[in-house]
Predict the structure.
Amino acid sequence: EDSFFPPQVSSASSITQDKVVSSSQQQRHVAIVTGSNTGIGYETALSLVGRGYDVILACRSRDKGVEAAN
């Protein structure tokens, strides 16, 4: 239900060396789209997801963001 919200990290020390993957081993595209629950922002987010991006929806209303994500 809230899967598009980033996980909470308590501290930077929780990341260990074996969890770090160099960019040559894995390439991941992440985009933050503001106003992504309607209009151009929503269409932009859909397009980026279709291209394989992980998209973070930045919306003023949590409820509208959840609705847009579903």
The CA atoms of residues 1 and 66 lie 8 Å apart. The longest helix spans residues 39-50. Strands lie at 30-34, 54-58. Confidence is low (pLDDT under 50) at residues 11-15.
